[in-house]
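2024-03-11 09:14:02 DEBUG pipeline.ingest accepted 1 chain
2024-03-11 09:14:02 DEBUG pipeline.ingest length=250
2024-03-11 09:14:03 DEBUG pipeline.predict start
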Amino acid sequence: MLTARIIPCLDVADGRVVKGVRFQGLRDAGDPAERAWLYEAQGADEIVILDVSATPEARAHGLDVIDQVRQGLSIPLTVGGGVRKIDDAAAFLDAGADKVSINTAAVADPGLVAAIAERFGSQCCVVAIDAAMREGRFEVLVKGGREGTGLDAVAWAKQVAELGAGEILLTSWDRDGTRSGYDLSLTAVVATASRLPVIASGGAANAQHLAEAFAAGADAVLAASIFHDDETTVGAIKQELAAMGVRVRL
């Protein structure tokens, strides 16, 4: 049985970690490299870095941030934001990423998912799905949640699995930054439909929320605010989860 993964997420803008609610009202949360190294020391299983301004500003991800983080990091690193073509994915991997996360570009060109998976392996291809409840169904959002697509999130999750994606990074736009817990219904339906490992994201405030996401079918959970604000540590959260019966790497 695989252990449940705890993954701190670093949303980055202009070379700094930022945090807000649905990417609005962003506040500074520190240096990406320092934060990533701290979380590894606390017991993080992986790190995710998302350049939250790259796609809306139509620019590339800052490769220097990836390089700086990787210099002191030994755990797996997923990087997203600003990937538009396969050469962008190659640049991320060359800079030190282990996996590449794509969202807006995948919706615009689903063939990019297949191309990345074929060239670098499915294990390198993470499809990020930002979803929000709209008129009774989960709709896929792009461009940092700024635009709806009309796509059904569950159908899209099944499609990216067929295209060769190795993992889904699933963010509930309704819950992001709210600390009200993960959207468990969204997590469950996507995990069941896609049969891919799902990283649940959006809404974590405590260990109980993480345990609920695992129970709903998540293979990993993303969290940001609770770690960035130094309210707790990855190690402390893992100890709480272990006490609840969740299998984690201690």
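2024-03-11 09:14:41 DEBUG pipeline.report The longest helix spans residues 32-42.
2024-03-11 09:14:41 DEBUG pipeline.predict end
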